[in-house]
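Why run this: before we spend reagent on co-expression, it is cheaper to look at a predicted model of the complex and decide which construct boundaries make sense. The entries below are exactly what would go into the expression plan.
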Amino acid sequence: MAPRSAAAKSAEKFPTPAKLTVTLVVNGIERKLAVAPWTTLLDALRQHLDLTGTKKGCDHGQCGACTVLVDGRRINSCLALAVMKDGAQVTTIEGLAQGATLHALQAAFVEHDAFQCGYCTPGQICSAAGLLAEGRAKTPDEIRELMSGNICRCGAYPNIVAAIETVLSAKPEGRR
Amino acid sequence: MTATTYIGVPTSRVDGSAKVTGVARYAAEYNMRGMAHGVVVSSPIARGYIRRIDTRDALAVDGVIDVLTCENRPNLAGSDEKYRDEVAPPGSPFRPLYDDKIRYSGQPVALVVAEELEIARYAATLLRIDYEREQPLTDFEQARAQAYVPPKKRDGIAPPAEDLGGAKRALAQAAVRMEAEYRTPIEHHNPMEPYATTAIWEGDGQITVFDKTQGVQNSQQYAANVFGLSPDKVHVMAPYVGGAFGLGLRPQYQLVLAVMAALALKRSVRVVLTRQQMFTFSYRPATIQHLALGAQADGHLVSFAHDAVAMTSRFEDYQENVVNWSRQLYACPNSALTYKLAKLDLYTPCDMRAPGGVVGAYAIECAMDELAHAAKLDPLELRLINYSDKDQSEDKPYTSKELRACYRAGAEKFGWAKRSREPRSMREGSELVGWGMATGIWEALQVKASAKAVLGRNGDLEVSSAFCDIGTGTYTFMTQIAAEMLGVPLYSVAARLADSSLPDAPVEGGSWTTASLGSAVQEACMGLRGQLLRMAQRVDRSPLAGARLDDVAFVDGNIRRKDDASRAVSLVDAMRAGDVERIEQSATFEPEDDGKHARFTHSAIFAEVKIDEELGVIRVTRVVNAVAAGRIINPKTARSQIMGAVVWGIGMALHEETLVDHKLGRLMNHSLAEYHVPVNADIHDIDVIFVEEKDDIINPLGVKGVGEIGIVGTAAAIANAIFHATGRRVRDLPITIDKLMR
Amino acid sequence: MNNFEYSRAADVAEAVRQIAADPGAKFIAGGTNLIDLMKENVARPTRLIDISRLPLSRVEDTKDGGLRIGALVPNSDLAYHPQVEARYPLLASALLAGASAQLRNMASTGGNLLQRTRCYYFYDTATPCNKREPGSGCAAVDGVNRMHAILGTSPHCIATHPSDMCVALAALDARVLVTGPGGERAIAFEDFHRLPGDTPHLDTSLAADEIITAVELPPKGFARNYTYLKIRDRLSYAFALVSVAAALDLKDGRIQEARIALGGVAHKPWRDREAEARLKDEPATREAFTRAADAILRNARGFSHNAFKIELARRTILRALSQAAQASPQSQSDKRIAGKTPQENTSETGRPR
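The model came back. Tokens follow.
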């Protein structure tokens, strides 16, 4: 649509970047999307794929709300350009449950009331999934330290640690 | 109260599954075809005027739709009244993009609207704005000299109580005295979800708004007023709110900008603030508080003087209750309280979790600790000596006050008896150990609120209200109350909230939601009970014939006689007998004040710190918070509320502070990397105790609310523990390494 | 964020060709700092050259018994690499003290070297900053400077380098291998980062058309007597107020060699070889450590809000040397600070060996 305002435009051209085709395997499904280089993986998920479970809390890698698993590793999707992840396997919060059955971490978060407002929660859970896969956290101190990249302003930390401990102790392979 | 099935039983959040699977959508998460994206441009200067705005380059970017500024904005209301929302303080509320005057650094000066977020963000960097700069004043210490008593009081905020006795003379004659000045900094709420509004253009002037707010009807009325619309043209919803902590009590500027753009462009627009822009509106105001306490040698208070200065903006007199608490908490015959404001070139502060109480209690409870030390008394002993069974400010007894039980339960759980009184007397390994305590107090507020209950023929029950759930568990407790009242399983109940078309409710805040909405839901369900019983009596040879409501119980989907459980009619049969598809009942709860009682929640907080003295590194290793807050509807979510508030208290004590560059008049640590809130590693054991507190006066449910009490006093308990560990009294929050080393 | 073009480099030579051809171009690997700065409109590259797929992700032994770390090895992989854990635990510890697990999974070794300062003013385009906009002035000198430098400052810039990894690499005498149009060269770690002087916009001695390909560690890893001690405003996920990488080579309670590098105090990881040399042949006592700390900080200068860092740095150096001497390195998950405050003139190593 035409600009509402009659304000003058510069004669100088300010083009926007051409879109590139990127293939992402998101939660097991191959998705092709046309994104400009300046689109982050986070915005691609939220806006292009309507996967809004992954949250934008700070957009600068300072809160962890945008945590997803890329090729099995937890990362801050706000600091990754979608074009750079061409061909990657991405797991988001929407991909953890098996149908109606919650992932063990999801069930533990509900059981331990490990959230209030829920906004940091998908990032906490994806981060915890990454933590279990890494197998480095064995003690509560180690869980706390390795979950410190996920800020919870509601202050559910003790319940988050309890939820993760529950899953960790139920899953011997997680302990390594 | 008789045994309950759901009320008082720890219950997992009914919205839990939506939140852990990513299904719950927040204000910025409604995607639709043709939606435009607005990016806010913020003022780099703190005070002055916009001389010229050059939008030509920005408009030349492919995909930019428009740039809205004070020069081309659509018509906005011209009187302050139209911008005054439910909780506005006295003054002239800020009007986004209204004129060329810059009132604070970070003020929104333009909205760039484009087809895509990234395009708008890019074009925003191309805007050229010339400013006429004036020197701002943001230094609170400097402005303090001009502090004044606010001429017009803010609704609902009691001004300092009148002098009691003669505090000055009593202090001079006191056997034990303390006198000190305490400082608390600017803090920012920083909910995890950035402020956002999605304004959906429905055609024919109708706008649907997903707003990040604590009050959908507040946002609705405000937007209608500002844009001169009929409220029924503005439909506001906020089904999920990613934390707010008071920041969402007032409609914020992104709401105006999104609706403005949607109306101007006749299309749907989303405006999301950046984390940096989360520092461009309200905050907890800094305070400087002077306390002078006097006591007899045995610890009985004889004088209590509390003088506070807080900051506000140039355009509004934001006020909170900082100084009244001592009068409500301790028995003392002589008391003098003052509260003043100092104006700065900053935005207006707003309520932030336990506004006023949390800063006031910090100073009061540290002062009590100092007095205890001076009197060579155990700090808990000093509180018990001065325990008051009435609110001295109005000379009224409490509806209930189980603070003594909080002290007892908390101290026992914590092991307070094993504390050695002298500072620096406890060690563990290389660390100094400190044990500190404090008292918490918060008003048990209630407000007028409505709810509706609808029962369908198949037994599905829906309860609804316009209240919001900002993570506090509102969906869950209303489900519990409704299920309890009608004797149906939790899964048969659907709770609907945060939609301006639902029954009226004010903003969600002040810890008043459970008491107010819970009572309304209970009343609506009572109405359904009556209707159901009447229908059940129409069943052929009804086993409930002649029964009154008092004679029956609603249990397991049945209405049955209390004296003979075998005489029952199921809800489904009753509905069939009534031959109705659905029955409904609306109810409005209006708090009753008999004028004879004071209403407060109380708590006792005990904290342990371990400190590496050489390096000033502080670890808060244990906190016990014992709370008396009437009846607890859901111990599971209530515990989380208190626990989260303790985390806030730890942040307040050790981390949180917004830093201001006074030359630039600008907040500098505007990010989550540099504005420190606690992370997981900062938090250890937090024990929450709810002491039994029966309150038959406050409301039929006996509920007081727990959203705020958990933070009140926590920072003081930690500061007192730090003193106990080190012998150093830091009276300036947060207690960072540099201050402890000084 | 400005408009930019995106390209990928197939190999190192092409990466160098691409960057040499475009003065507005920047390499991107992990992106953890560059994307952050681009969103703040602080970095405005006209082209991003994606080097994340170059074959620079290996950790391998060097001929002289050291370790060569590819520039694209993620921080987390490096921290948990068995060779690093066993031979260079100081580096592993420093890596784990930095950022968060997610960021460490993304951040590359080379990118970590090129991290920019966390100075509030550098990040905020509404304020003057000589590093961001040469000649605009330094607002931090009389502004909010609690986090800022106390060593090696200039009137033009008092920013600090924020990396933890680099502090350990400085202590370990690493070398940075770079490739430019003229071929490969090695830069001693101390020469890689610069002091601000009157050109604070230049953080490093890397030329605009060079790419970091690897970091090399010499054989000596100080795997027994070391520590990385980071002091910050909260217990994790915060930049250092002061951090110290300390490493000692001890024989019979005497110091054969000492390495002390400081983070959070200067525009670069701070080494003072003269002060280190004075510890040679000294007994590992608090007295000796105090002399070293005082020597390192002899020219330290505080500003309005950060003068406390001088004393904090002194105490952190003492504690770190004590931890190193006692072979009780700081844990990065247990937040108790290891090692007790030692007494004057007592040996720090316990019984002589």
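Chain B has a mean pLDDT of 97. Chain B touches chain A through 81 residues (CB under 8 Å). Bring this page to Monday's planning discussion.
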